[in-house]
Write a structure and sequence with these properties.
The chain has about 375 residues and is mainly α. Strands 1-2 form a two-stranded antiparallel sheet.
Length: about 375
């Protein structure tokens, strides 16, 4: 069984990711705030993209691992190896995106970053670790214990971050450097291998913060197992919507004592974004699977079918057009700046980056369509 609405949801999330990534490129401060990540506490549309990916991975696992969890196929060493292999590939791709492509320049090529400054964690690294841990939990634990594990992670993470400060910093339990997660990252990963933009104090995709991200995947898995036994009708969509609204409300209420924060991946953030994911999936489910408006969303479905390739390729493109320049001396511009001003300069500084971002989304929709026509589906 395959949910077309889930592929559509994945494609919409991909398109949103490309949009916010491209729209946030200008370094002149002239950007729409709602397309940027929240500086610390709070959220914007951009902050929903990553948790949506994890939630979607969890929902997909309910279908991809169904033959093992239902007992229709034995869980062999090969199954565990396939999970480990996929996780390692994701982690390795993340390392390359962090430390290889960014330092590559067409006129002065550098293949690798200095190993003593290699950033270890990142988006794909967190996905790889989260996928591995969640998959093992799904294969080994019954559904009831997965619920207990998910809730235990959410509550335990709240208690740790709320009452255990960083042992090497006193800025505050929810500050960038004073939270316990940042301390664990500095202790295990070491400062030189953290995100450079954080001035070596923490990492927005750090190791400790990956723990609650696992619960984001597991909550997606529990959604998928529930969907599998439901009839395809508007009642199911309504129930998804109600569950989503409840999770959003709980997350917002919890925000009063445990702030919604993507970089910390707080428990309130987990519930809030899971709720937003449920609401978004409900809309896709109703329009695509129940009302059969598949043609309206076919472009997003196609984009969702090659999500990993499009993600990696779009990040490579961003970094190449930011690193490489047109012209020389004072007239030198990055390829991004040159294209942006040449194509959309007429729209003004604030709108040109958004139009460039929309054009880039259309570009990748075109690439995904060509791959679909040729039946090129790159899986890992």
């Amino acid at each position: 069984m395959r949910l077309t609405s889930l592929d559509v949801f994945r494609g919409i999330t991909m398109a949103t990711m490309i949009l916010v990534n491209m729209a946030s490129l200008p370094d002149d401060g002239k950007k729409y705030v709602w397309l940027e990540h929240a500086p610390w506490h709070g959220w914007t549309i951009a902050d929903l993209v990553f948790p949506f990916f994890l939630y979607i991975i969890g929902v997909s696992m309910a279908f991809s691992l169904a033959k093992y969890t239902s007992g229709n196929a034995p869980i062999t060493k090969q199954v565990y190896w396939q999970i480990a292999r996929r996780s390692l590939i994701l982690f390795g791709l993340g390392l390359l995106l962090n430390n290889l492509v960014w330092n590559y320049n067409l006129t002065d090529p550098k293949l690798f970053a200095n190993l003593d400054k290699l950033r270890i964690m990142g988006v794909l690294q967190r996905i790889g670790i989260g996928f591995f841990c969640a998959s093992i939990a799904v294969l080994l634990l019954p559904k009831k214990k997965i619920w207990i594990l998910s809730i235990g992670i959410i509550v335990g993470y709240w208690l740790i971050l709320s009452f255990v400060p960083a042992l090497d910093n006193s800025d505050g339990i929810f500050s960038k450097a004073g939270n316990f997660g940042a301390y664990i990252d500095r202790l295990i990963i070491t400062p030189a291998h953290l995100h450079k933009g954080s001035e070596y104090k923490s990492d927005p995709e750090g190791l400790f913060g990956t723990l609650p991200a696992i619960s984001s995947i597991l909550l997606g898995y529990l959604t998928g197992t529930w969907l599998k036994v439901q009839s395809v009708n508007s009642r199911t969509s309504t129930n998804l919507l109600m569950f989503g609204l409840a999770a959003v409300v709980i997350g917002l209420l919890w925000n009063g004592i445990f702030p919604i924060n993507k970089k910390l991946w707080t428990s309130s953030f987990v519930l809030f974004t899971t709720g937003a994911g449920l609401i978004s999936l409900a809309a896709c489910y109703e329009l695509v699977d129940v009302r059969k408006h598949k043609k309206w969303f076919e472009s997003f479905e196609i984009l969702g079918l090659n999500a990993i390739f499009i993600y990696v390729a779009s990040i490579v493109l961003i970094k190449l057009i930011m690193v490489n320049q047109i012209g020389s001396g004072k007239e030198a511009k990055s390829i991004y700046q040159w294209l942006n001003s040449s194509l959309f300069g007429w729209a003004g500084d604030l709108n040109s980056s958004v139009l460039f971002a929309i054009a880039t989304v259309l570009l990748w929709l075109g690439v995904a369509y060509l791959m679909y026509r040729r039946s090129w589906f790159l899986k890992i």
